[in-house]
Amino acid sequence: MSGEVLLQAVQVGIEFGGLRALHGFDLEIRQGDLKGLIGPNGAGKTTAFNLLTGVYVPTHGEIRVCGERVNGRKPHQINRLGLARTFQNIRLFRALTALDNVRVACLSDERPLFTRERIAELRRRAAGRSPVASAMDALNNYVDWWRAILLTPGFQEEEREITRRAEELLRVMGLEHRRDEEARNLPYGEQRRLEIARALGTRPRVLLLDEPAAGMNTREKGDLMVLIRQLRDQFSLGLLVIEHDMKLVMGICEAITVLDHGVTIACGAPEGVRQDPKVIEAYLGDSYLAAHGLQVPARTPTSETPAP
Amino acid sequence: MPAWLRGIMPVVIAIAVLVVLQLLLGDLPFFVYLASIVGVNVILAVSLNIVNGMTGQFSIGHAGFMAVGAYTAGKLSLLIKDVAIAGLPGAVSDQVQFVGTLLAGGIAAAVCGFIVGLPSLRLRGDYLAIVTLGFGEIIRVVVQNLDTFGRALGLSGIPQTSSLFAVWFCVFLVVLVARRIVGSTHGRSLWAIREDEVAAEAMGVDTTSYKVRAFVISSFFAGVAGGLFAHFVPIINPGSFTFVKSIEVVVMVVLGGLGSTTGAIVAAIVLTLLPEALRSLFIQLGGLGAGASLAQKVDQIRMPIYGMLLVILMLVRPQGLFGTREIWDMMPRWIPRPRRVT
Amino acid sequence: MRSALAAVLTSCALALVGCEKKTSAPPSSAPSGGTAAAPGGTPGVTGDTILIGEVGSLTGSEATFGISTRNAIDLAIREVNAAGGVKGKKIELRVYDNQSKPEEAANAANRLINQDNVLLILGEVASSNSIAMATKAQPAKVPMISNASTNPRVTEIGDYIFRVCFIDPFQGYVMAKFAHDNLKMNKVAVLRDLGSDYSQGLADVFERKFTEMGGKIVARETYTKGSTDFRSQLTAIKRSSPEAIYIPGYYNDIGLIARQARELGITATLMGGDGWDSEKLFELGGSAIDGSYFSNHYSPDDPNPRIQKFIAAYKAAYGSVPDALAALGYDAAMVAVDAIKRAPSFDRAAIRDAIAQTRNFHGVTGSITLDEKRNATKPAVVLEVTKGKTKYVDTIAP
Amino acid sequence: MSDFAQHLINGVAAGTIYALVALGYTMVYGVLKLINFAHGDVMMVGTFLGYAVAQQLGYEHQSSLWGVLLIFLAAMAGCAVLGFVIERFAYRPLRDKPRLTALITAIGISFTLSYGFQLDFGPLPGAAPRAFPEVIAPREWLVVGDRAVVIWNWQVISLGIAIFLMVLLQGLVYRTRFGRAMRAVSFDHRTAALMGIPVDRIIALTFMLGSALAAGAGILYAIKDTAIQPLMGLYVGLKAFVAAVIGGIGNVPGAVVGGLLLGLVEEFVVGYSSSSWRDAVAFGFLIVVLLVRPGGLFGSVAAEKV
Questions:
Q1: Using CB atoms within 10 A of its CB, is residue D177 exposed (0-12), middle (13-18) or buried (19+)?
Q2: Is the pTM of this model over 0.90?
Q3: Which chains touch D (3 or more CB pairs under 8 A)?
Q4: What is the CATH number of domain A1-82+204-308?
Q5: Domain ranges of chain B
Q6: Which of A114, A150, B32, D104 would bridge C4 by S-S if both were Cys, CB 3.0 to 4.6 A apart?
Q7: How close, in Å, is residue B94 to chain C by CA atoms?
Q8: pLDDT for position C260
Q9: What is the pLDDT of residue C312?
């Protein structure tokens, strides 16, 4: 637990028309972390993801990505700071091939006229809103399009690099044989993996996975767990996983946050969380507890299935 | 082929081919006129396809941008009609001025595209439809109110400096631009927006700015098409750039297949020539009496037919003739295909 | 980047080279009369027929004008052919529709000139369409007679372009004079159709002439073709309490304007131009339009036998009283036939000269003389609307 | 001052028609999230139906109370059928397709109807405008001074109908089972179907209701402006749509307020500034509203579900 803090949420909350969907949410992800976010249906897990990635703007609290405050920034800006995600209900670009799905995410960092750092520096100095920086950005973009239209040698080289990287990611996720297949034609499990490959294409430092194992069978889940760990080490990521399957979460996560009705009810190592009566209550309801006299169902994490 | 040559090779080839065509066919007035009309419609369809097809937005005000280009280029040409560039032969000077006015028309349309696109592209797709439609109306009212634009009578006496070469070179350019965008990382981002805006945004694609940029490029070419139009039709007036014209272009794009450049080209050619051909055919067959009245019916039923075409297409084949594919994807395997960009 | 720049420059340079070559092949509008005349001897004349062309708005927003024009021209040509044709040859008419759009009008003129090789062209009503046609006819040196385009710019295009109607300045002047001299009015409001060059032209001249005569324009308002609610403009006009309102628009709108004016309690006299001339005006305007005046090319209740004969023939053929556009179409065709008769040859230049020499031709719409600007000088009539009919009031000479 | 009052009356009268047409737009949008581009053209068909019935009735009967009712009911019933047919055969098959397909279809139907009616063979009326019979015999309801300000009976009747319908629809949407079902379908039609709501029937009924409303609005419009022609629906439809967006699309009182507001803004721009910019006003207004309040005056922008 010594890596730098990549993602930090402090007392984050949001209301939809008076309804508190999330309240007082705290989170910290460091490089090398693998944390879990669990909770019953409607607990606010996906809302938390949407807040962290900028889909919603928090009404309370503060979110920092790699040290920068990101409240109110657009999702794509937050993504560029090093935060990527997958979606609970797979949102691939269905008509695009597997390769193109990843290539969309492999955005080139080369900027033709002004460097990204220079623009960021200008923005910082002008506290976010700098017309000069915006103009530079726009000029960059338009020139970049002209490079594509004129098919300059430099641009061709960049395209080749993007393709190479995308193919590499497909290989890491075991999808190289699906390279030219349309995403919608892939089997379910492969679609999930493709989503992860796509997220990795944006060169994230933190990766948020929204129910990556949903709809998979036990064997596939096991494979996935191994893969997730492997990804963390290979790409030096910080990881946050939403999962419905307690077994899975308990198996791989080093720390778990439990949400219920938008409130964090428990937080800590898997063993501690599992014992927490509030968690049991949230998951199983009062009647269950009453009937069983506060008995905590003993569950052991599934043994790790061997790598494929 | 060396990398630097790949960029400009098609341009060289296109110029050579078009020069030959110009020399062979350039002085058949009727052919040139038809080819120019077809060319302008192809430019409109291919450029609209960048927004409606590739990006998945829906603009129905393309004629408005065409009008901006036509009036800007036409007015400029009228202003500098009597001026020649020193040191150049008259014809060359005319052509330089012509190219200049076309660019001015395109840029004016692009600026309008930016102004219209920025607020509406932040919102959901159907708002763009309404706002672009409204924009077309506003342009019409502006033109009708300003004496410099000849009000209702329009502008006439614009030098007829357009040629087969000029129109089809612009056609070539818009196709080149569309194809190269599609094949590049930018094109993939546009497709991504079309497929799933939320996911595209989450993958670091600045969706609003991409949409606006696509819209600006599309408007630019609509403006160029307008500029060309102004230089081969004898008079431009607000009646040429109505809602009906916009819908005509939409029908071309939808029929060709939203997202297919070659589809848009084929549909534009067919839909421009078909009424023309039917009209001539009826007159050839039926003579003046019955033939002419049948030919008249062709014009009359064109609009309702366009309407029904849209409905039937959406029900039976919503992807249009080609879907998002290009014509070579549908040809037999043994015909060599254009190489992918990467 | 550098290579990109090089690419742009090269392509520009190449484009210029390409364009320069273009000069050897003249642009589409450049002379094609030469090529057209070459193969068949005299253009438009084959064996025993003379082919003449017409372009009209048979569909689209101005279709009613186009159709009555076409009918009348057709009638004229049938009459001529029944009487033995011209110089032993029958006349054949080829008509193309322009969908009420200028670019289609140019296209149609192009087709007539280059494909069908017609001797001369008749048409159009709308000035923008006529201008579009004229820019094709003039460089090809094909004579063209517009029947009802009243905008001065039409015949300014060149010496092959003629018309058989008077022009906007005259018509505007007629109503200004009528309002000032006959009706003794001093305060007039003007309501014009913003989308119509015809309406704009008449309104401009009316305003100028009426002011010159010492009258006062008390309100200037506009509307656009296709709108159906004119109350806001009319209320604004009402504020200035004019004695008359000059509305040089088309009958479609006039009927509604009249009704809404009366509904708002406006009692001012309504006045207009030849665009009012249609049976539809009475249906749409009802009793609200009674007591209004408009200028026109001819009056159907003129007892002149030539006029009555035309009206009877037209009624027999098409079942309705011909409007002024029909009368003008008929005259345009007859002027053309007359010129072909008088011309020494079927050469287009000779025909042009013959048309230019038209003097005191007795047409349905009066005695037509073409002046050096190729416009017809002839009187206009002022009609009053009473009980679903028009009544002749006065003739005003140029 | 009197002309200010007269402008006010004109604006309200024009706005009333926008409001009535906008109600139909808003209802259909609320349920289907579809801009029913053809709405204005359905209105046009309604006026032609009313015209045909009035012609059949003959002059002496058409402005009797029963005659008027018959004209309205026949037109509304005819349009309800038309709306049903359009929904059943053009929109329903596309319900689960991307929204663009439905929008394109709507534009297609609009074109088919408006330009189809311009043809002049068979029963189709052709392009020429026709005078609409004085179904409500015009009578001065209020005259101020020497006819300085005039309010007509039909202006009052139209406004009354618009407000009555607004209240009725608001009640329908918020107080009845049908309205509850509508709102459920509007929220999520798949879930609504799972809850046992007959989604197809609800949508079809909404469509028929909207189309019947359009027909009624159309006849009032024809009475107001005294003439009808096939392209009349395009413009009124567009402006009514603008009114609906200004008021917040999907919101019943919003449509009425938006319609009245648009009518008044147009009227006063024409009356006190220049009449030549009239057609630009509505769309300029729309762009401003979208910039400032994208959800309209009474609406809110719903975040997309992720």
A1: exposed
A2: no
A3: A, B, C
A4: 3.40.50.300
A5: 12-242
A6: A150
A7: 9
A8: 92
A9: 94
